[in-house]
Amino acid sequence: MQCKEATSLIIPFIERELPEDKLKIFLEHIRNCKECREELEIYYTIHMYIEGIDRDWFSTYNFKGEFEKELKEKGNQLRHMLDMKAVQESNFKLTGKKILR
Fold first, then answer.
1. Which of 8, 20, 23, 86 has its Cβ near the most Cβ atoms within 10 Å?
2. Domain extents in the chain
3. Tens-digit pLDDT profile for residues 1-19
4. What is the pLDDT of residues 35-64, one digit of tens each?
């Protein structure tokens, strides 16, 4: 089986619609082809994520809250880095020496 054919069978495989004769060849190819296996893993992960949303598996996970938290943390890290840079520049102007970090 060539990669092009294997990738065309990923969705039928995930949806359990792959005929048995193709299934054996497909699985053999997936076991031996790193690229196609990775492609299958990506599609499978996306499929499961969508299924999880449809089935409300993620109802206890606050995606928006976690996203906002991550943005806030990254903003705080950036501000800290800029503050440290300003301190280093001020110190260099006053002493002529760099603060090592």
1. 23
2. 1-61, 62-101
3. 999 999 999 999 888 888 8
4. 998 898 888 888 877 777 666 656 555 555
